[in-house]
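Quick one: structure for this chain?
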Amino acid sequence: MYGRLLLLYLSENEVMLAKFLWKRVPEESRISDPALSKAWEVGRAMAERDPQRLHKAIQADWPDNYRPYVDRLRGEAMDTWKL
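Got it. Here's what it folds into:
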């Protein structure tokens, strides 16, 4: 749940909302869901304005339940970041 919401925020270029969400995510959720950490890696790359790291993070292998959100983010990132 947290990871998909995080990706939705990022696809809307709401990096600060994503950051505040990440800070509220329980540590147990961060550990138990590796895709959540991948989603935050995308957020960190966007926050630090690092297009190379963003491209690499988006291209990671994502679970099926995250793919629609990643595809949306990928499309937005292509337009915004010229990936």
